[in-house]
Structures are given as C-alpha cells and as structure tokens.
Design brief:
alpha/beta; TIM Barrel; globular; binds phosphoenolpyruvate
C-alpha cells in the first residue's frame, strides 16, 4: 500500500541548499505518492509550487501583538494545508505543554489546516512498558474536546523520542503494536473512526524497505533524510 511521506526539515538548510533541493524535487516524478514537506516558516513559499506544504509550528493565538509567532490564519492565507504540532523537540526545548498543543490543534482546524500530531515515549518509558500509558495520556490531553467530525482531519505520528535522529528504531512488531494501539484507542473513543497514523524516527533509505512491510503504518514522518534529495527520492520511489 502506498504510504504518505511527510518531511520535517526542522531548522536544517540555508537558502542555497533549499533552492537546490526544491529544484531537484521540481524535476522529479513523485508519481501518485502523497508527499508533504515541512520547511521552516521562512522557506514555505519556495515549496508551494512543487509539493504539498506544511508548517512546523503555529501560535496558540490569533493575529495580534505576538512578536515572532505565526498564526493559523497567516498560514492559511499562504495556502498552507498542514502543520506539525507536539513534536518532541518542541515539547522538550520549548517546554510546549499538552494544553498548548490542544489549543494549536483547535486553531489549525478552525482554518482547515491538517494538524500532524506527534506522540511518543522516551527510552526508559518503553523499557518500563509504559509506552501505551504515555501515548494514551498524550492523546487524551492533546485531543481534548476534539469532536468526531474533526478527528479524522488529524494525522497522528507515532515518534518514539529515542528513535529521533539516533539511527535507532523499534522493531517492526513494536511499531505495529503501538500504531495498532493508537488506532484502536481512537476507534474506541470516536465510534470506529479510521485515523491516519504515521511512524517517525530515523526512517531513511537504509531501513524503509523493511519498514514498508508494516501494514498498519499509513506513512512516515521523516526528519534528517527528508533534507537529502537522494534519500527522500529513494523513500518515495519505494512506495511506487
Ligand atoms: C522527526 O524529527 O520528526 C524525525 C522523525 O527525525 P529523524 O527522521 O531525523 O529521526
């Protein structure tokens, strides 16, 4: 099954790198593989004509006196249809709380922007069999008051924190178990809904063929490998 490919390009790449990357993507045939790339705010416009585009963050506030912030309304006015929320780097470095993540999701939905919500456990939490408890708590808080009408407009990314940027990944059966847990949990809460759930954490051209065999995984959220055209195109080609 073709999986969705979402690239989180984080704060990598200067303008020259972006221009060269965009040029490569422009002349590459993605076929029917859904590809969404999420560069930093300053580069959003460069990607608009070559693929679907997402932001990496959004303000909890509407337009106003919030220096350095970017609102859902501003993203929408640029034609941005996706936005990552709750990435573990923001939870960690910016001390983003579940309450703020919940507010961001609501602001995005008001503007018809698809939130890509990241959840996942730390290594010691997995080692202590706490993965499902941690993820359930994140989902409960991040999706507070999200209605049945809106839940399938959200993409969930299961990203074990210890797998991000480390080259480590859970086993295929661990990924399958956790993604199936997320899907079943949401089905129980939301009356049999089918939500798109991605895997993220050190996905690259080296392991994608093996990961592709996990049927429960609807796609990948890819960090480092999404900034290298050769790696990204290998991953996209593996879906054709
Ligand atoms: C990410 O930051 O969302 C991510 C999955 O990073 P990487 O692919 O580099 O592990």
């Amino acid at each position: 099954m073709t999986k969705i490919i979402i690239g989180n390009q984080k704060m990598y790449m200067d303008k020259e790198d972006v221009l060269s990357f965009v040029n490569d993507i422009k002349s590459y045939d993605k076929g029917s593989v859904p590809v969404i790339l999420c560069p930093t705010f300053v580069y959003l416009d460069y990607y608009k004509d070559v693929c679907k585009v997402g932001a990496q963050n959004v303000s909890i506030n509407d337009n106003g006196s919030y220096t350095g912030e970017v609102s859902a309304s501003q993203l929408s006015s640029l034609g941005i249809n996706y936005c990552i929320v709750g990435h573990s780097e923001r939870r960690n470095f910016q001390k983003e709380t579940d309450d703020e993540i919940n507010k961001k999701i609501k602001k995005l939905l008001e503007k018809d922007i698809v939130p890509i919500l990241c959840v996942g456990e730390k290594k010691e939490e997995r080692d202590n069999n706490l993965t499902e408890i941690i993820i359930k708590k994140e989902l409960e808080q991040d999706l507070k008051d999200i209605t049945r009408d809106n839940i399938d407009k959200i993409i969930i990314a299961y990203e074990p924190i210890w797998a991000i940027g480390t080259g480590l990944t859970p086993t295929n059966s661990e990924i399958d178990e956790t993604i199936t847990f997320i899907k079943n949990y949401l089905k129980t809460i939301y009356n049999d809904v089918n939500v798109t759930v991605l895997y993220g954490g050190s996905v690259s051209e080296k392991n994608v063929d093996e990961l592709n065999s996990i049927a429960s995984v609807d796609g990948y959220l890819i960090g480092g490998a999404s900034t290298k055209f050769a790696s990204l195109s290998y991953i996209i080609d593996s879906q054709k």
